[in-house]
Amino acid sequence: MGIMAGTTARLATGKIIEKFSITNDIKKLRIYHPETAKSALPGQFVNIRTSGSNTPLLRRPFSINLVHRKQGWFDILFRVIGRGTVALAQFESGAEVDFIGPLGNSFSFPEKKETAILVAGGLGIAPLEFLGQIFSERNISAHLFWGNQTQAPFVYQENFSQKKIRTSLATDDGSFGFHGNVIQLIEKELSHFSSDKIRVYACGPNPMLRALKNFTRGKNIACEASLETMMACGFGVCMGCNVAKADNAGYFYVCQDGPVFDLKDIRIHG
Length: 270
Ligand SMILES: Cc1cc2nc3c(=O)[nH]c(=O)nc-3n(C[C@H](O)[C@H](O)[C@H](O)COP(=O)(O)OP(=O)(O)OC[C@H]3O[C@@H](n4cnc5c(N)ncnc54)[C@H](O)[C@@H]3O)c2cc1C
Ligand code: FES
What we know:
The protein is of the alpha/beta class and about 270 residues long. About 20% of the residues lie in helices and about 35% in strands.
């Protein structure tokens, strides 16, 4: 089954019902909005107005990280890196959040008998947690490979153990798990899997996606990735979120055509 398109996006106001500090600079907001919780698909994102003032003027995109369809909430998980995320980190329980969503397409489901391999670089874990949640609910076998620069973000790892998703972890500095990057870890461990039964789902920085593309090339491994380009308008007008097509025949726009793409269809820069 291929990547799924289609959006039921709308301008909405949600209410923050819980705020979590995962580390000093990684935060999670739980937003009550039953319609979004009910309709969101893994891979989709919301475009959030991060402050009540005009600074920053543009909304910021965040993957839907987890949903609770019955309780009516969804989570976003983010790193505080600039004006928008600094402002968002000030939001407390009870605050209202103005967002557009759910936006974009979504990841596919594995074919019968395929094992899902989730590959996350840093906070690329955000959309993959939602995907893992759905796989777990549907008894789809999944294995997470997750790499971070240091040990700190792994306090979050128990969320995956609870979902019975096997995990293999790597750190660039060797402070936890495998010493090296997540693609080196996959190269080491993936020989245990039969390649015709694997479907890879990835999200992370461009160098990771490029290494993954090189690794899967010629191996007949299906591989989809959620891209995190810079966005301005978020709905196909500014052309700011372009990504080159692999066949050099122009560009895709991440906000409209993605954010999930088949890795073989795109060129990865950076
Ligand atoms: C579809 C989609 C889903 C996303 N999901 C998440 C998520 O779940 N969690 C999360 O933490 N982030 C996510 N991002 C990235 C997030 O939108 C940016 O981190 C955010 O816009 C930064 O805003 P800011 O105002 O804090 O930083 P800015 O002040 O705009 O930028 C600060 C610094 O970060 C760099 N930067 C900004 N945006 C990006 C980006 N998209 N990719 C790489 N570098 C960037 C800038 O070049 C600058 O150096 C997602 C992006 C997209 C397109
Ligand atoms: S963000 Fe403007 S076209 Fe995609």
